[in-house]
Design a protein that fits this description.
about 30% helix, alpha/beta, single chain, 6 helices, about 190 residues
């Protein structure tokens, strides 16, 4: 089941489509983070201001340096010891769609531990966009059943996993980490 869903989602993402999928936090909308056309589809679907960047998922912290200019060693400890999903905002984003990079040049990255996300990112060999499955400004859905019909209909593929789960998951903690090790929490 998992392998089949990863294969179906991978095909859509490689073709420039967008998927609706379960994550280690809340349900997400995703696409290939290097495909600007696909990224823009997500902005339109969410009715989101393009000045607001979205985060990307990686399968391992070993890939951080492929997508950000300078990684403070503290990032590796934070990722290793975080008890809850952690998104770190790094300056100097690179090798991703310019539509994802904030005006200050930063990008938020989370190392996913969710089996579906891990396998999809590993097989895609690129980062995956992950943004909450809601219209911008509306509450983030806690369960699949709370996702607005227009979001479900707007996705090119809806992953058939965890759709009946009622486990409450929260968005990730978000912190900004500078190359000098200075950090601040954006969302706890």
């Amino acid at each position: 089941m998992l392998r089949d869903e990863v294969a179906k989602a991978l095909k859509i993402v490689r073709e420039g489509g967008i998927i609706l999928y379960p994550t280690d936090t809340i349900w997400g909308i995703g696409c290939d983070a290097t495909n600007t056309e696909a990224v823009n589809k997500i902005y339109r679907l969410k009715q989101r201001d393009e000045a607001k960047s979205m985060i990307i998922l990686l399968d391992t912290e070993n890939k951080l340096e492929s997508y950000v200019g300078e990684v403070n060693p503290l990032a590796y400890d934070l990722i290793e010891y975080a008890e809850n999903p952690l998104t770190i905002v790094f300056p100097g984003a690179k090798n991703i769609s310019p539509a994802l990079i904030s005006s200050d040049g930063s990008i938020g990255i989370r190392i996913s531990k969710h089996p579906f996300c891990l396998q999809l990112v590993q097989q895609l060999r690129k980062p995956l966009v992950s943004t909450s499955a809601n219209i911008s400004g509306k509450p983030s859905p806690q369960y699949f059943s709370q996702i607005a019909p227009e979001i479900i209909e707007g996705a090119d593929y809806v992953v058939d996993l965890e759709q009946h789960s009622m486990e409450i998951k929260n968005p990730s903690t978000i912190m900004r980490l500078a190359p000098n090790g200075q950090f601040e929490f954006i969302r706890r």
